[in-house]
Structure formats: C-alpha cells, structure tokens
Design goal:
Elements (H helix, E strand, L loop, with lengths): L8 H4 L13 E2 L26 E2 L22 H7 L5 H4 L11 H16 L2 E9 L5 E9 L3 E6 L5 E6 L2 E6 L4 E6 L5 H5 L5 H4 L2 E6 L3 E10 L3 E10 L5 E7 L5 E10 L17 E4 L3
Parallel strand pairs: 8-14
Antiparallel strand pairs: 1-2, 3-4, 3-13, 4-5, 5-6, 6-7, 7-8, 9-10, 10-11, 11-12, 12-13
C-alpha cells in the first residue's frame, strides 16, 4: 500500500475531527467504486449515478466527464493469433501502453490554461480541509514553494505535519516523534510542485471537462505491483485557480483536499521545508 498516494491518508482516519466544510468539498464514499462511467454496449447515454460523490451542503453542478470510446482495432489474421497467443504482451505486464485518448480543441485549450496556471505559481499558501475515505475531516494550513517544496500543518488536536524538501516527503507525528519518509517522485503532489508542467505532454490525462463552476482534469497512473491510481484536479471555471484535488487509490478509495484563502504573496521561511532526521525516529515507507 502506498499510503502516501493520498496526502495524509495514513492519518486521516485516526485524526478525524468534526469541522464545517465548504459547500464545494465532496465527501468521498468509503466503499470502492467503479473507475469512471460505464459505457453501454449500444453506445447510448452513460449513467454515472453509481460513481457520483456525496456532497456536504449544496453540491456544485455536476462536472460531466466525456466518454472516450477507444477506436476498435482490426483483429490479426487467425494464423497470427494462434502463433502469438502464448506470448505475453510486455506493455500490459508492466502497465504500459493502452488505448490513446484523443481530446478535442476545447479540451486541449482547457488543459493548456490549467498548465499555464500551475506553471505560473512560484509560491502558494492558504488553508485546507481534508476529507478521508471514511468521511473524517481534518483542517490546517499549507504553503508551497516551487519547485518541490511544501508544508501541510494540521490543526490541533492533530500532531501531523507533511513536509517536502524538494526530493523527499516526510509525514511527521510530533506527538510520537516519528516520521515516515517517501520519495516525492512517488506522490501525486509532484505534479502540483513541478516548476513547469504541460499536463497533456507530461502526464497521462484521461479526462478534461468543465461546467459553470469547475474545470477538471484527471491524471491516471499505473504501477505494475500496486495498481491504478488517479489524481483529479479541480480549478475554478472562471478564474482558473486551484480549488481542490482528489486522489483515488488502487482500491477505489478517495481522499479529497480542498484549499481556500489562497495567496501568492506570502514568503516562505526556508526552514519550514527542512526535514529533521535527528529528533524524529524515521521509518522508510514500504516500497
């Protein structure tokens, strides 16, 4: 289990507290759910009700995800199928390849705007609300300094800090004086912390969509030994500022982090991003 795939997932259940939520924060369902809408065999309308999130307060308008149907490929001649049937496909074995998703001009333009916004940020700070897979809520403050540095400090009674120094991420428990260490490259936060990013070129985007409230992009990652996870970034449709992200782990569980009171004017103290390997018992996370 790569618990770090979800910011604070390893601690969200134990540290849940009753906190009022902004009305735009979805409450993830605790049970695994299907990854994306099912495509009817007849090509008719797609039902997404089974995978729809539950919202606290007044829900925002639904963000429709375009249904992408891979183009059928011509079957190889029977003789070729018979000769090659016993050979494994190395691309499938290692979670590579697959159908190529085509995006129209509007989707590409939308992804370009998201990329421009993310690339324009050098520092970003504000407050956050985290909702775990069981609906537990935690709050706190965060500050980002690109490239690669971030600190999430949870409000009491949580003793948790999440710190990235640019290459390494630590999930620290101040009460127990312990911390778990992960490579930043194995966490979805690397997309938010990259100095420059082109979403369509640098990631495996499987969905780009928008409505009157949100512009949404979903990135999918496949790892042979772990499975498939998804990172969904949501931006304001009008100002294209970051509103929240949701990580769906390989078991289908969601963790959502909504951010607000954002500012790019605050200067960060470099010491905020230092990982202390002397005062905390450090545990290397399971790979």
């Amino acid at each position: 289990m790569l618990a770090v795939l979800m910011l604070g997932t390893a601690v969200s259940t134990a540290l849940a507290q009753t906190t009022p939520l902004p009305p735009t924060v979805p409450l993830p369902k605790p049970a695994p759910k299907a990854r994306g809408p099912a495509v009817p065999a007849d090509g008719g309308p797609t039902s997404t009700s089974a995978a729809s999130p539950t919202y606290a307060g007044t829900p925002p308008p639904a963000v429709a995800a375009p249904v992408v149907r891979p183009q059928p490929q011509a079957a190889p001649p029977p003789q070729q199928q018979q000769q090659g049937s016993f050979l494994p496909d190395p691309r499938k074995l290692f979670g590579l390849g697959g159908a190529t998703i085509s995006f129209d001009a509007n989707q590409r333009a939308l992804a370009a705007k998201m990329s421009t916004y993310l690339s324009s940020i050098s520092t970003l700070s504000g407050n956050f609300v985290q909702v775990g897979p069981n609906g537990g809520k935690t709050t706190g403050d965060f500050i980002i300094q690109k490239p690669g540095k971030v600190r999430f400090q949870y409000d009491p009674p949580s003793p948790i800090d999440v710190i990235s120094d640019g290459t390494t991420m630590a999930i620290r428990d101040r009460k127990l004086a312990t911390q778990d260490i992960y490579p930043l490259s194995q966490t979805p936060l690397r997309f938010l912390l990259s100095d420059r990013i082109d979403l369509l070129a640098d990631t495996n985007v499987v969905n780009v969509s928008a409505d009157d409230t949100f512009a949404t992009v979903t990135i999918e990652e496949k790892q042979a030994l772990i499975g498939t996870s998804r990172l969904t970034l949501m931006f304001g449709a009008k100002d294209m500022t970051l509103k929240q992200w949701t990580v769906t782990d390989p078991q289908g569980y969601d963790t959502t982090v909504a951010v607000y009171n954002l500012t790019t004017a605050k200067k960060a103290d470099p010491d905020m991003f230092k990982i202390d390997f002397t005062q905390f018992n450090t545990n290397d996370a399971p790979k």
